[in-house]
Amino acid sequence: MKKYIILLLLFIWSCNLSNKNKDVVKSTQNLESEVLTGIDSMHIREYVEKSFQTPLHSLEHQQYLDSALAIDPANAWLWQQKAMPLYKARKYQLGRPFLEKAVEYAPEKYLDYSGFMRCIFSKDYLKSITEFMRAKKEYGDGYVMDHTYNFYIGLDYLQLNKFSKAKEFLLLSKEQQFQDFPNDTPQEACHYLDWYYLGIADFELGKYEEAITSFDMSLKVYENFADALYFRGRSMTKLGNEEGAEWEKKAFEYGDNTINEDNVIYEIYPYQVFHKLNESVRPK
Q1: Domains and CATH numbers, the chain
Q2: pLDDT of 27-52, one tens digit each?
Q3: Which DSSP string do the residues of 259-277 spell out, in sequence order?
Q4: Element (H or E) spanning 143, and its range?
Q5: Beta strands 143-144 and 147-148: pairing type?
Q6: Whether 199 contacts 228, CB under 8 Å
Q7: Which helix (H) or strand (E) holds 59?
Q8: pTM
């Protein structure tokens, strides 16, 4: 009887081992099937090149990228390329699933970019904060689109009227840049927009003298920066200085000297006074 029990156990163990071996073989086969062949890579390159030869916002552009993704569906860059034109066309809800795919397949590359897109493009400030905080936790403080993660978190909080929190992260951004660029002067080490938005946070908090100091630092780098001139003038007026009106007048004279980020052609930045939709600053 014991002999038969032992034989039965050996048989069950053998079957389990056989199944495990089959699973290993199957997993290996799946892995091998995901490795692109030279022909696959060539076809993807052809589809991408054709997509770049079509208008960025055209249906054909998207279709060529779809063809490339049919070959390599885990390619995060291709998903990002599908999302980007839709965001630039303000079709945020259409672009979001594609950008989420890019984050899914390569969070180390696209999580911070997604946070940036939520902050500047789709104005999804709470989720932008969530993504940047996750990026800080998993990858450390970094930069995306020329600015620190803390900078964008500061902008998110400004747009949520959480001015103390905005100042907290803008100060973190300033200190981060001071550490990263120790040989530069303070106005050069810290980006002029960091100084500008730090001034905005203090302006909203009623700390007008501190705001003026930050606006002046911004103006040392970007001379006659109209938005900084405007809020410097308003800060002076709040302090009872009648010369504030002259600074505001000067701001309108230099209205073309507004925020000059690359994406300003698509979106209006937070607290950007002199933008394309402001009728009062258009040439008469």
Answers
A1: 42-140 (1.25.40.10), 163-284 (1.25.40.10)
A2: 323 323 356 788 988 999 999 999 99
A3: ---GGGGT-PPTT--S-TT
A4: strand 143-144
A5: antiparallel
A6: yes
A7: helix 59-71
A8: 0.85
